[in-house]
Predict the 3D structure of the following.
Amino acid sequence: MAKTFKCSDIGLQCSFTARADNEDALMAQVKTHAAQAHNMAAIDEATMAKMRAAIKDEA
Ligand SMILES: [Zn+2]
């Protein structure tokens, strides 16, 4: 089942949505986006936990 992540789900004013076949691939996309769009070169543990919690199984 595919996984999805939306920046807006963690409170960012951003329309980015990531979609991948598994969580590892999804997080890789999210990290790349966060570095480029949000100047988050390093993601701290609290933010990472928020991101993981916001991952959804695609309906
Ligand atoms: Zn974003």
Notes: Residues 7, 12, 14, 16, 33, 37-38 surround zinc ion (CB under 6 Å). Strands lie at 3-6, 17-20, 56-57. Helices lie at 23-38, 45-54. The chain is about 45% helix and 15% strand.
